[in-house]
Amino acid sequence: MNRWGNVRVLLIGLACSVPVESWACAVCGVPKSAATRGILPAVVLMLVLLGIVFGAFIRFFIRANRSKHQSGGLDRVRTSS
């Protein structure tokens, strides 16, 4: 057996040794439980916040690129020489 065959056997063994209950999260595990009703809004809020942060990050680079092109870059900057 080659090296990749050993790695595959190890990964399959690790995947089979994990209990079945750990594969499902609280949101999709038991839909009517109190934990699911509590965690679902938190998951939605985290996704919204993540979208806002990524949007602001992308907007920063778009605005920086636009201002660089409008100002002419560093070509028109005078130095003290």
UniProtKB/TrEMBL annotation:
Record key words, sorted: Membrane, Transmembrane, Transmembrane helix
UniProt key word Transmembrane: yes
Keyword presence, Transmembrane helix: yes
Transmembrane parts of this sequence: 40-62
Name of the protein this chain belongs to: Uncharacterized protein
Species of origin: Methylacidimicrobium tartarophylax
